Amino acid sequence: MTKKDIITTVALATGQTKKATEETINATITAIKASILAGDKIQFTGDFTISPKHSKAREGRNPSTGGKLQIEASNGISIKIGKTFKNQLNK
Predict the structure, then answer these.
(1) N or C: which terminal CB in the chain sees fewer CB atoms within 10 Å?
(2) d(C-alpha 20, C-alpha 12), whole Å
(3) 3-state class (DSSP) for residue 18
């Protein structure tokens, strides 16, 4: 599903215009990004939690050659599923 598909689906569900829905979704995404960049986690209770995640530099192996390589430190996110959503997935 693309962002455009989400905008269309939400617009149909709420009766709002696609333009108004797109503005709302863009504002939501901006708020989520700002929160993650500030180091905060975002909880949608029962559904999922999005948290910033830091991976330290480490040594890895090239799967083709078996040779050692250095993997740089990086930042990303972690998404953990909530109990309610997990139960829905496992019905």
Answers:
(1) C
(2) 12
(3) helix
- Residue of 34, 4, 2 lying closest to 21 (CA atoms): 4
Whole-model pTM? 0.79
Q: Which of 27, 30, 7 is nearest to 17 (CA)?
A: 7
How far is 18 from 4, CA to CA, in rounded Å?
9
Residue closest to 72 by CA, chosen among 85, 87, 55: 55
Decide if 3 contacts 29 (C-beta within 8 A). no
